[in-house]
Design a protein that fits this description.
Low-confidence stretches: none
Number of strands: 12
Oligomer: single chain
Distance between the termini: 22 Å
CATH superfamily of the largest domain: PurM-like C-terminal domain
Number of helices: 10
Largest sheet: 6 strands, mixed
């Protein structure tokens, strides 16, 4: 079979292709295209989301301990439920690994998963095991939300606000990629993110019109909100706090603009959303505004640089 490849199509175009093939159901209240789906049952509703983590792509054993990897694998899934305004309650874990993987490494991985689950009171309730040439983790998180918030509700006149760090994980990845183990704060954040788990439900209660977690980079992820909501988003560069560790790494990488790291670094799992004026909850930093139009700009202009991470280029 010949024709267009995944690299030629691109990650987001593939997602849109898949979404267009899924059809509709009375049980699907919010379907594919958000951080989590919202599904109805005979006695209520629940949120559900799945993430893959692949050795060499999402983590490296020479950079992170098994406990770090376990915590990160769970954190990115708990963050998806948080980004819908909910709280995760249960996870299933699929694990594939080579046969020569030490059992002690798996025990440490599991300990990290359990420790991260405990932060929100979630439990691992099942999963599946298989052999593979490299370690692959597939985690499905389920949870509840009193008012699930999708990416599609932003309106012109809303403000954009963020809770959590931006740029630290990207700086940590940059440092590790060059063989450095410092600044420690940035490297640690790449190894184990710290999503603001309490803030998703609080943002929903405050009246958030759209929410997303920052996994691929702020510009890329706000682009998902802009597209889903049919609006434009403009960010104010002066609103961003650039951590010292990010400035240090940006300088060490040959004078990279530290704002670039903050805007497109990804892997921070901060929570960003849109709110009516005056509704931003305590702890949120206003960083921009929603207007009519399309796309994401910085100080009124398209950002000249990488927007964020995508698979297959």
């Amino acid at each position: 079979m010949t024709g267009q490849t995944l690299a030629e199509l691109g990650e987001h175009a593939l997602i849109y292709l898949i979404q267009g093939s899924l059809g509709e159901s009375d049980y699907v209240l919010i379907g594919s295209g958000d951080d989590a789906a919202h599904v109805a049952t005979a006695d209520g509703t629940y949120l559900v989301s799945t993430d893959l983590l692949i050795e060499g792509q999402h983590f490296r054993k020479d950079w992170s301990s098994a406990e770090d990897i376990g915590r990160k694998a769970v954190a990115v899934n708990l963050s998806d439920i948080n980004a819908m305004g909910g709280v995760a309650t249960a996870l299933t874990v699929g694990l594939a690994a080579p046969g020569d993987t030490p059992v002690a490494w798996i025990r440490e991985l599991l300990a990290g998963m359990i420790a991260e689950c405990a932060k929100v009171g979630a439990k691992i309730v099942g999963g599946d095991l298989s052999s593979a040439e490299t370690i692959i983790l597939s985690i499905t998180a389920m949870g509840d939300a009193e008012r699930p918030v999708s990416r599609a509700g932003a309106s012109a006149g809303d403000v954009v606000a963020v809770v959590g760090e931006l740029g630290m994980a990207g700086a940590g990845f940059g440092a590790l990629s060059r063989g450095f183990r410092s600044p420690k704060a940035a490297v640690d954040r790449h190894r184990v993110p710290e999503p603001p788990y309490a803030e998703g439900p609080q943002a929903a209660e405050a009246g958030a019109t759209a929410l997303i977690d920052v996994s691929d980079g702020l510009l890329a992820d706000l682009g998902h909100i802009a597209r889903a909501s049919n609006v434009a988003i403009d960010l104010a560069s002066e609103a961003f706090e650039i951590p010292e560790a990010v400035q240090t790494v940006a300088s060490a990488l040959g004078g990279v603009d530290p704002l670039q790291v903050v805007l497109s670094g990804g892997d921070d799992y901060a929570l960003v959303g849109t709110f009516p004026v005056g509704a931003v909850p305590a702890g949120g930093r206003t960083i921009g505004a929603v207007t009519a139009g399309e796309g994401v700009t910085v100080d009124g202009q398209p950002f000249e640089g990488v927007q964020g991470h995508t698979h297959w280029g």
